[in-house]
Amino acid sequence: MLRAMSDDEVDPEEGVREAVERSRSGAPAAGRVIRDRFSSDEVFQRIIAAADEEITSGSRELYFSGLAAGFAITITFLLYVSLTASTDGHPILSALLYPLGFIYIIIGGYQLYTENTLPPVALTIERLASVPALLRNWVVVLAGNFTGGALGAAALAYGGVLSGTEATVAYDIAHKGIETAPAVLFTKAAFAGLIVAGVVWVEYGARDTISRLVVVYLAFLAIPLGGLFHVVVSFTEMLYLVFVGDLAILVGMTDFVIPVLLGNTAGGVVLVTVVNYFQTTEHRLESARFEGANRRLSIREWFLGGIAGRSYVPVIDTAAKHARTDEGTYRILVPISNPRTEQPLVEFASAIASAHEQAVVHAVYVVQTPSRSRYNSDSRRELVEESDQLLSEVCSVADAYDVDVETSTVVSHRSFEELFTIADRDDADLVVMGWGEDRLWDAARAERPIGELTNRLPCDFLIVDDQGIDTSRILLPTLGGPNAELSAEVASALQSVGDTEVTLLYVADGPEDAEDGQQFLENWAIDHGLEDAEMIVDESGEIEAAIEREAEDHTMLFLGASERGVLARLVRNTLHLDILDEVEASVVIAERSNGRSLWRRLFGRR
């Protein structure tokens, strides 16, 4: 018979096992241990996540953040000068507060050249961001840093901040750099670049603010102790000499600042590429961007950026698999910002597509991700699955039109620009997009200026103000031109597949021009397949008033964009057309593409 052991008795085997599995320090001697630090792959992924935010920030954001960082560097120069003066030039004591400006910048998240600008190098190496995108980031941040440094140098030179002794010390410190040979400056700056790049890597490997603070302090303390040079500090020192009248700015730039700039850049990039990048495993890209090498930019895109098509690979992009393969298919792209409310937009596109012998409607759920968003593989999978479910419900209306429908999801920091990238990659013939309050496009974010994007449209655009999208009675005012021709093509397509009545409106300058107007409408209708349309010639000469009167009896109003860039003005909410507020009909603004080359117009994509 077995008997239970009392509390005072111990199983010998259990005692031995416990002794083996526990060391004197209390750590297990066997089994897995939860590590208290990130692996090199995990650090790389954190840098990639930060680089997303850097590379997709707008130029204004980057510039003013850089300006704040440049002015903060003035604190470093000021404290270095003050302590040097008060400690009689003691080599250690004088440098104790040198890192303070850098601490403000890094902990505060400001943009500093050689620190915040290095993470995008990792994106560029992986061909997730183009070389032009990286250079643009560098140039904007450096311009902001130099502007802030110039303001700080002016304050020190003219503001009476430095006493007589301190002013002399500032003069001597700045002159040390000017008197150093350019080759030596480059070498010393390269070592400073290595240090700063190391700060980036270690900072993203740290788990708490105190650790980051210690790393930043010790790293930047090494710059004055080692007699090294940082480009923004050097620029501030150089301009101080310019302001006190002892140096020509051109000489200061060529003999001092530029060698330091090149050294910092070379040292930082070498450490990122040769040391940090290649110590990670081959799985770094797959884990950082989910689909691995298939998501990379082409060599041409990587080298030329937006000129060759795109300059950045978004966080999530399932649209790439739908790129055009059949040149004979008419493709309509429908970007969606809210799948729960934009089903009528897909139905409208499907009706247009059904007039073509071969057509595809591609509905893309475009998600503007907020700054510092993080998507691991699980959260990405959940987001895409949820998106697919929502889009399948939205696109069910296409069944009534017997057209093929494709759906995809794009998550990006700059969703508005992704719309143009997808349209170009799809080789889309038409984009049908909604506009109005609470649309994705109201908070458009792009690397390139919005005007540059919208003035070179990759395909035709229909911009729909959704008031129900009833196509039963269409009013089409026309004076001719390519945008009116696009309106006519769409109206003719809708008329051919549904019970749609089309009315053409011509507004003459007066009764004397009415006959010419009637003749114009008759010829224009024949040329554009609208012979059965009702034709109205208004003799008032008041275009908007005439359109408003006639729109009362219609459900949809087509307006040709009166000038290039109407889409940019819609995005910026600067399109002031009273008629848009006066009519109850759904308004469609048509803008013809002008972004395709003659070769592509004749022979398609090659």
UniProtKB/TrEMBL annotation:
It is found in: Membrane. GO terms for molecular function: formate transmembrane transporter activity. The keyword Nuclease does not apply. Residues 1-24 are annotated as: Disordered. Coiled coil: none annotated. The keyword Transmembrane helix applies. GO terms for cellular component: plasma membrane. Residues 331-464 form the UspA domain. The chain crosses the membrane at residues 62-83, 95-113, 134-161, 181-202, 214-236, 256-278. It is a multi-pass membrane protein. Keywords: Membrane, Transmembrane, Transmembrane helix. Residues 14-24 have a biased composition (Basic and acidic residues). It comes from the Archaea. InterPro entries: Aquaporin-like, For/NO2_transpt, UspA. PANTHER family: FORMATE TRANSPORTER-RELATED, INNER MEMBRANE PROTEIN YFDC. This is Nucleotide-binding protein, UspA family. It comes from Halapricum desulfuricans.
